[in-house]
Amino acid sequence: MSSSKSPLPTLTQSSTDAPPPSYSESLNAENHFTSRVSTVVDLHIFPHLAVDHATTTIILVPSNISTLIASPASPLEKSETLVGFPSSHNPTVIRLLGPDNRLEFWQRAAVLRELSCQLCERLRAQGFNIASNPRETRLGQTPARISGSRDVDWKTVEPRALTDGEARVSVEKEEVCLRIENDMGLYETRTGRAIVVRVDVGFGEEDDSWHV
Q1: More confident residue, 13 or 150
Q2: Count of CA atoms in the C-beta half-sphere (13 A) of 115
Q3: Segment 183-189 long-range contacts (CB within 8 Å, at least 24 positions apart)
Q4: Cα(61)–Cα(68) distance, integer angstroms
Q5: Torsions phi, psi for 184 (to 5 deg)
């Protein structure tokens, strides 16, 4: 007597038949996602905004970007120089630690939006009005565009000067370059992807500083 065996489910069948996450599971994942961003804002970003600079730049280096991690034998203050970031913008390098702070997490568009939103909310709570960021905009419809061509003229809109009580937040994934002094006293250039947070603040004539 022959017995028939049911075929093993294929990968496509298994993934298709898997139940979707429950509402509570989705809510827990979202809360954890938001909490991770809040921790970095609280510990590594907002404390550095209590300065008397019109522009503050925070460079968040994800934990798995080894090219931007200096050797422990060389103190950071003596061994590295940021390339392309003016000193007037008060640049600060923050190296994140742990598996939760890998580039795979921080480069996600949703994470960048959440980081920007949380910073804007904090600044609003301090009494600032949040100014929008300039984007590339079309110069206008050209005859080629009207006729169905994909040729479009673009221009980059320069950010307007901020007035007293205004702030502008920018959060982008960028390639960052460091000049690091090695053990022989020679400088080497290292590059890697990082999250660059810029906060511009408008100052009035009477008060040229702000404190969070």
Answers
A1: 150
A2: 28
A3: 183/71, 183/73, 183/74, 187/81, 189/83
A4: 7
A5: -90, 5
